[in-house]
Amino acid sequence: MSGSDVAINIDKVVKRYGSFTALHGVSLDIRADEFFTLLGPSGCGKTTLLRSIAGFEAVNEGAIRLYGEDIAALPPHKRPVNTVFQHYALFPHMTVLENVMFGTLRLGWSRQESEQRARQVLALVQLSDFLKRKPGQLSGGQQQRVAIARALAPRPKVLLLDEPLSALDLKLRQAVRGELKQLQRETGIAFVFVTHDQEEALTMSDRIAVMSDGRVQQTGTPREIYEAPLNRFVAGFIGETNLIEVEVLEMRGGRATVRLPGGQDLTCPAAPGARLGAGHVSLRPERVSLCPPGSGDIRAQVENQVYLGTDIQLLTRLPDGEPMVVRVQNSDADNLPGLGAAVGLKLEADAARLLAD
Amino acid sequence: MMARAGTDLRRFTGFFPMTLLCLLVLYAPLMVVAVYSFNASTSITLWGGFSLDWYHDVFIGPEAPKFRQATINSLVVASLAGLAATLIATAAAVAMHRTGGFRGKTASFALINLPLMVPEVVTAVASLIFFTVIGFSGGIGTILLAHITFCIPFAYLPVAARLSTLPDGYEQAAMDLYATPWQSFRLVLLPLMAPGIMSGFLLAFIISLDDFLITNFVKGAGVETLPTAIFGAVKQGIKPNIMAISTLMLAISVVFVALSWLIGRNGKIKS
Amino acid sequence: MAATTPGSGGGGSDLYRGNAPRLMLPTWLMIGVFLLLPVLLMGVYSFLTKEFRGGVIWSPTLAAYDQFFLNRGLFGDEPPSIEWTYLGIFWRSIWQAGSATLLCFVVGFPTAWFIATRAPQHRTVWLFLVTIPYWVNLLIRTVSMKFLIRDEGPLNAFLLWSGVIDQPLGLINTNVAVLLGLFYSYLPFMVLPIYAAVERYDFALSEAAADLYADSWTTLRLVILPAVRPGIIAGAILVFVPSLGAFLAPDLLGGAKAFMIGSLIEEQFKGAAGNWPFGAAVAMILMTIVMGVLLIYARAQTRAQAREGA
């Protein structure tokens, strides 16, 4: 199983519920040892896709291949993938050890082997002291680790995780993120992770598929998604960005020349699929800097200031009434212009991006 | 690529046929009796044509006065016992759910449920012995007292269930607006509890109407309720007029169930 | 199985604190005087001497219990041996009640599961279908069952006519008839608690089991049944206890051959042949058994809750 092997191939999968289409011909490849995240708002189809891989939803069209083999016709208990459920679904009447042994016993392992394996994975998630407890006696974080151990014990080819961190509080969530990443590296199998939290996706994933309305909007590494978004949805969903309405004048060799609202022109990279005419340029707030009024690329007026701890966010207004958010580091806090002041904005052209839509 | 049922997990082969079998077994005896109550001939195996004779017999025939009196007795007892039991149970429900902890709360809870836990035949014997010892001869009075007692937990169930879903915020608001506890109860809590109280009454009514064993033990010689009258008649052989009575009671039950469901629905919409 | 428990939370409030005594007084009066006291009196009666025309002589004796457990021969002067007659009746009643409970489970569990897994708007309809027959008087229902299965009844008539059998099944006045009667009497008491438990069941557990390679029957056995066990036990108790002391089914459907505890007790209070102290004694023994079962159940409940760390 080398890193370039495709663990899961989703091939034009369509899922309909009556007249509503949840997945519109989704295609994806997930590699054998990567931490892959399905990211998107509620209702985008990410959970439906995950459950289709697990076997709890039947697809109407398309194929789902696990290491080359089409598993779409298999019922869930015949698919060698395991799921960590959002609310864990630990069997309440069984102890932690019995929960973790469940899958391997069903596969026909001997009691001895099952128990040995269970103890091994529970040690991996640091729960060796809790073997005889029942789920009702554990904290949320502990239950989650049991759920992970239970899903890993039968040595699945792929591990599916359905928003497993959503029930945890913030500090715990951040700690667990690192542990999950570590676990994926140690076990070396593909993890398919579903979340609506874009910060989570960015920090944990090797690659992300951003979804909306049953379609994959963009697939790429966290850096690609953040710095080179394809369209307005991806640009707006990940982090914060300024969407500047522009007139696209010229496009050549992957770069475009656009006219800004203030009348100035800017040349920046263009996403594949961008067109001439009306369009949008995405520019992250931290790529805009303040300069004295009259200089820089564009004029603006400071409207509001928000203190974010590490940064300060300035909301400014462009001449055409559109907003522009500027992010300034904390260390420059004392030199900021006051509310209502006129300023100039310098736009970092190479970090801007003309979007495809 | 066909779509396999996604929620396979809820389906088990054989469970649906078993459900149908269950319903068949439940309805077959009653349906058969209903059909034969319209049989013109007294024979069980031969169909003599459609006839309402047996219904006439129930209302006008030689045994009619006996059944009529028994029915009246049953309805009177059921109404009074249902009413009394519901009042008592409502007070008990308020005590259990609106007075916090009190000494003897667990004992009270056990007491409310006691009639449910003592086997019916034991209650019957104990009641008979009791009335004999204190010299109450059998009659409507003894029947009524016994019925009120065993109807209390049945009236309590829906009332307490309803009450336990009502937050006390409304009554607190009432008290904040100068209502006394009694006023707050009468003007705010009672109306909100109404669907539960209605259900409690209906349940107690049906249970009382239905009772045979306890009634038979305590009633003494001169009085009959509908169940005891029917039992006596059955002991002499199943005649078609019994089947007519059975069908009538089935029809009445359906009406009651529909009533109680409608009330239950109204209650939900109101809250 | 009993009325809703006044718990520590959920609707609990002390808005009318201090009113409990006067609110509970009618209940204490009614149930205390007309149930608790009579039961105690009945206990006293079981230790009294019987009077020949029914009723009692107020002179304490163990005669009633003696008659139940021991056999002192025709003239009372033989060395006592175990009297199997009445113990046999008890044993048969336990057996019958147990069989009825099992039958109710076999039919009731699939039914409850089926209804609970229907779409929410359809569930009420199914529930009504199952419960409407039960709003009919138990006496009427038992009589209907008798009508249906007796030798001259429609069931036999149909089977004879269609050639499935050549002579009537002879169902009436047998243990099977009583079993059928008990099953018919108490089926919804098994269905409803199981239904309530299945409705609360988290289907993610079934998904987890399937995800971990269990097929549907294995999931039923290892995950579902344990999860809904409280409902099953509640249903079993609700069927077993009334069946044990039942009177109508054995009397109307069983006749002399299928004598059960209820019939034995009833017989003691009928007219001149009655033996009130004996009847009271048998009733006491029945009540003790039932209370014992209920206590074990209550204790097991509280222990199970503590174990699962509720």
| Morphology of chain B | globular
Give the strand content of chain C: under 5%
Main beta sheet of chain B, described? none
N-to-C CA distance of chain C: 19 Å
List low-pLDDT spans of chain B.
Answer: 1-6
Q: What's the order of the H and E elements of chain B? A: HHHHHHHHHHH
Uncertain ranges of chain C: 1-11
Output mean pLDDT of chain B: 85
Tell me the strand order in the biggest sheet of chain C: 1-2
Residue fraction in strands of chain B: under 5%
Number of H/I helices of chain C:
13
| Oligomerization | heterotrimer
Secondary structure: number of strands of chain C: 4
Structure description:
The complex is a heterotrimer of chains A (357), B (271) and C (310). Chain A is α+β, with helices and mostly antiparallel strands and 357 residues long. Chain A contains eight helices and 20 strands. Chain A has helices spanning 46-54, 96-106, 111-124, 140-152, 170-187, 198-204, 222-227, 232-237, and strands at residues 6-17, 20-31, 35-39, 61-66, 69-70, 81-84, 158-162, 190-195, 207-212, 215-220, 242-252, 255-259, 265-269, 277-283, 288-291, 298-307, 311-317, 323-329, 342-347, 353-354. The two termini of chain A are 38 Å apart. In chain A, 42% of the residues are buried. The mean pLDDT of chain A is 91. Chain B is mostly helical and 271 residues long. Chain B is globular. Residues 1-6 of chain B have low confidence and may be disordered. Chain C has 310 residues and is mainly alpha-helical. Chain C has helices spanning 20-45, 63-69, 84-116, 120-131, 138-149, 154-161, 175-199, 203-211, 216-227, 229-244, 248-254, 261-268, 276-307; strands at 49-50, 56-57, 70-71, 81-82. In chain C, strands 1-2 form a two-stranded antiparallel sheet. Residues 1-11 of chain C have low confidence and may be disordered. The chains are: A alpha+beta (357), B mainly alpha (271), C mainly alpha (310). Chains in contact: A-B, A-C, B-C. At the B-C interface, helix 1, helix 3, helix 4, helix 5 and helix 6 of B face helix 1, helix 3, helix 4, helix 5 and helix 7 of C.
